[in-house]
Amino acid sequence: MTTTQSPDTTSRTRSGRLTRPASSSPAGRTALAATAALTSLTLALTACAGPSEADLPSVPPASDARTTTAPPKVLLLGDSVAQDVSLALAAAFQASGVGFESLASDGGGNVVGPFSEERWETLPEEVETAEPGLVIYQITGYDWGTGQEQREGYEKLVDTVTEVDATLLFVTMPPIEPDDFYEPHMEDLDRAPEVARSVAADSEGRAEVLEAGEVWGESYRANRDGEPDRNPDGIHLCPQGAARLTHWMLGELRSRFPDIDPAAPEEWADTGWASDDRFGAC
Prior knowledge:
Low-confidence stretches: 1-36, 46-69
Order of helices and strands: HHEHEHEHEHEHEEH
Strand order of the largest sheet: 2-1-3-4-5
Radius of gyration: 19 Å
Mean pLDDT: 83
Strand content: 5-15%
Structural class: alpha/beta
Helix content: 40-55%
Number of helices: 8
Number of strands: 7
Largest sheet: 5 strands, parallel
């Protein structure tokens, strides 16, 4: 899928590349502010990082233990929101010793809706080549269509992931503040998580839905704890939001995949990814 056909390119724009030193450019000041915010966020995430080792379940008997000796490689699919979080996920998975690859795409990445037919021309081969043990599909802002069309797209994704002997996790999209571009499709986007849940329920354990509403709440919020959390465009994420979603996702994965042992937030939350140009508007 080319970005010239991308819905994003007709509706949303991001800041350009840095043209001045980071300390003096607006994007550079944003990066410095983001770093300071992530330092504070790291402390907060560490404080709620989860149970201590003493609180964790004991290792099962050898006869019941999983035979996998390495964590499953994680493959991320989705649109530009998934690309936002992919930067934090890449840092977190690297610190955790987990293989990670992102096929998320600006203005696309959807398996149903506009340009999905083009996406399906290459997606099965890309998934097979990546050799993942786990595929995460961030439900996109372009998952438009009837309930039946959405179901068919999601079922096809489940089948595609199953063919490479991997597990599929849908992640519900963050609430958005729709403009004229997204407003006509909000009924479809509101329905998408429900369809995904139905598909997962019928998948015989091959797929599951992670309810990211635990992270975002029911409505778009630009700021949390006095810091930018979501891009002012009403759609995308700021570094703090990407870090919060990543921290939550790591906890969800840990409970499902014993071979994944997430690194502590201080090992990945403030490692430079927040200065990426993607976050220039934050």
